[in-house]
Structures are given as structure tokens and as C-alpha cells.
Amino acid sequence: MFCNTCGSQVNDGSHFCPNCGAALQAPGAVAPRQPLAQPKDAPPSGMPRSRQSQGRAQKPKDPYQPQIKQLRLQIKQLRLDLQQLNQQIGTARIQYQESAPFLPWGLRRLDRMVEAGRLWNPAQKRQQLQQEIKQLEQQLLSLQQQGRLWNPAQKRQQLQQEIKQLEQQLLSLQQQQLQWQQQQ
Fold first, then answer.
1. CA 79 to CA 72: how far, in whole Å?
2. What angle do CA 55, 58, 59 make, to 5 degrees?
3. Which end of the chain has fewer CB atoms < 10 Å from its terminal CB, N or C?
4. How many domains does the chain have?
5. What is the CB neighbour count within 10 angstroms for residue 64?
């Protein structure tokens, strides 16, 4: 299979092109044969990939970044909406508190009930906004974690660390086995 964006060969089942970072799950994103037409700035197809970049390797684009940016913007907008709503609720409460001392005792209780009734919808809206922000932040965190795992350099480094740990464990087990054999 080949990427329709850059023409490089990709493994079956891959989600993103290892060369250009294009999403491969969309319809028409992969082709059974290498595309015939290459972009103007593409080097000749016979040249190895390492030489195509002419000394400067192109870093694959993180496919999660556009989604992460969009989520950050949505969260920012919701936080601004929440801040505005909190200001409206605070202003309404101040108005009721300022007028309460001038009301007779019996009317103060009624005034509090009116205040609670008027603030019911804004309070519900505030709770809804807080839940939406929490859900979007969880999605953002998940995408950031996926993006970290997608990064080939970080993944390679993580795998190298795991290999070192496994090699150390193997060496330790071999030493224990040798000691055990010597005791027998």
C-alpha cells in the first residue's frame, strides 16, 4: 500500500503515514500502487528517502496537533463563558444583598426565595459548563498522551529504555542461574 499524499510505502493497518504524517484511515488515503504523479518539489522516485531531503530530514507532522489545538480553543471559550456567567451570578447576589437591609424582616425571606429562583438557571448553566470543560480536558489529556506515544523519537527512546531494563534483568537471571549451578 502507498500513501496518496506523499507516495511512500506504508504497512497495512497503519493509521498514519510514517513519512508525511497523513491520516491513512480516510477513504482514498491509500493506494494499492504508488501514485504516478509526484509533487513538483518531490525528488526522483529512485532516490533513497535519506537523500531525498538533501541533508535536512523532514520531521513527520504530529496528526494529533490540530485536534489538540481545537480542544484548547473550545476549553478557552468555555472558561470565558463560565467566567462571564460567574460575574453575572455575583452581580445578582450583590444586588440582593445590598437591598436586603432595607426590606422588612418578613420580606427578606421572600426576597431570598426570589433570588434563588432567578439564579436557578444560571447555576444549572454553570454546572453544565463545568462538566463540559472537564470532559474536554479529559479528551485533551488523552490526545496529548496519544501524541506522545506517536512521536517516533520518543517511542524509540522509550523502547530502548525498556530493552536496557530487560537486558539487565536477563543478565541478573543468568548470574543467579550460574550461582545456583555452582552450588549444585
1. 10
2. 135
3. C
4. 2
5. 21
Q: Cβ distance 24 to 10 under 8 Å? A: yes
Grid-cell match 497523513, residue found: 22
Do residues 73 and 143 both lie within one domain?
Answer: yes
**Each residue's pLDDT tens digit, 82-122:** 999 999 999 988 988 888 888 888 888 888 888 889 899 99
2-31 as b/e: b if 16+ CB within 10 A: bbbbbbeebeeeeebbbbebbebeeeebbe
* Tally of residues, the chain: 184
Same-domain status, 18 and 82: no
**What is the rounded CA–CA span in Å between residue 24 and residue 42?**
20
Range of the domain at 1: 1-40
